[in-house]
Design a protein that fits this description.
Strand order of the largest sheet: 1-6-7-5
Number of domains: 2
CATH class of the largest domain: Mainly Alpha
Distance between the termini: 30 Å
Helix content: 25-40%
Order of helices and strands: HEHEEEEEEEHHHHHEE
Pfam families: Fapy_DNA_glyco, H2TH, zf-FPG_IleRS
Oligomer: single chain
Structural class: alpha+beta
Subunit structure: Monomer.
Family: Belongs to the FPG family.
CATH architecture of the largest domain: Orthogonal Bundle
Radius of gyration: 20 Å
Number of helices: 7
Cofactor: Zn(2+)
EC number: 3.2.2.23, 4.2.99.18
Length: 273
């Protein structure tokens, strides 16, 4: 599932490519992906100009010149492509937006995800439960400690709770825990002060590095894209079960916690630490 680094990578690319562009064509191949009849969706978007693209956690909001927003949540398996030609058959995309410069934005894999046209007020309502962005400068170490105070449950489930902080999912919760040398299933209530500080700094270090590397999703954004997915080869533990730890050589372990995959190094992240 795309997480904060992937969505920030998309936001950065889309802001450069789409801001000021007018929607000249709309294709809807799966009406379940949108929130209104396809003909209404198409008619409402034609002629609209994208003013800017905003990211909120794992969500993107395309701000339109009529005050509406396109609310995108890729969920599990969603991705985007941009260019003059689609890299796959057009029928494989749930929604396609075309622009006056001869290029299109293709939304694929939205079987669980969605692209909804909503008002500014509705956008606020839909996202009101999100916690602070994991990279929000206002989320200081002291603020992070306060949010953890009184929390129950495991570290991984807390980090992936979008009401606690927004933007972190399966991949980066494991990478953050590894970077902080903390067992991902450690009880939050039992974390030491120094562990909390390491986790806080690891959130920023890992997410920033992942953004710079283009995230871990390998689906190219454009035909000449050599950046997207660059962090996939840099993952220290995620999806590396049974492979040696790059730090100590111990075999990476793979378990399941509350239905989520969890990868860790038993030497670098001892359970009893």
């Amino acid at each position: 599932m795309p997480e904060l680094p992937e969505m920030e990578h998309y936001r950065s690319r889309l802001s450069h490519l789409l801001c000021g562009q007018q929607v000249t064509g709309v294709v809807v191949n799966r009406e379940g992906t949108i929130n209104e009849p396809a003909e209404v969706f198409k008619a409402s978007l034609l002629g609209r100009v994208i003013l800017f693209v905003e990211r909120r956690g794992k969500h993107l909001l395309f701000h339109l010149d009529d005050g509406y927003r396109l609310h995108l949540h890729l969920m599990l398996g969603g991705w985007m492509s941009y260019g003059e030609q689609a890299p796959k058959k057009l029928s494989q995309y749930q929604v396609i937006l075309s622009f006056g410069n001869g290029v299109s934005l293709y939304f694929g894999g939205l079987r669980l995800g969605y692209l909804h046209r909503i008002t500014a007020k509705a956008a606020i309502e839909e996202l009101k439960e999100l916690g602070p962005d994991a990279l929000d400068p206002r989320l200081t170490l002291e603020a992070f400690r306060k949010r953890l105070a009184g929390k129950k449950g495991k570290l991984k489930t807390t980090l992936t709770d979008q009401r606690f902080v927004s933007g972190i999912g399966n991949c980066y919760s494991d990478e953050i825990a590894f970077d902080a040398n903390v067992f991902p299933a450690a009880a939050v209530s039992g974390l030491k002060d120094e562990e909390i500080e390491r986790i806080y700094h690891s959130i920023r270090n890992v997410l920033t590095a992942a953004i710079e590397a283009g995230g871990y999703m390998e689906q190219p954004f454009t035909s000449d894209d050599t950046v997207t997915g660059g962090f996939n080869d840099l993952c220290q533990v995620y999806d590396r079960g049974d492979e040696p730890c790059r730090v100590c050589g111990t075999t990476i372990q793979h378990e399941t916690i509350t239905g989520r995959k969890m990868f860790y190094c038993p030497t670098c992240q001892p359970k009893g630490a």
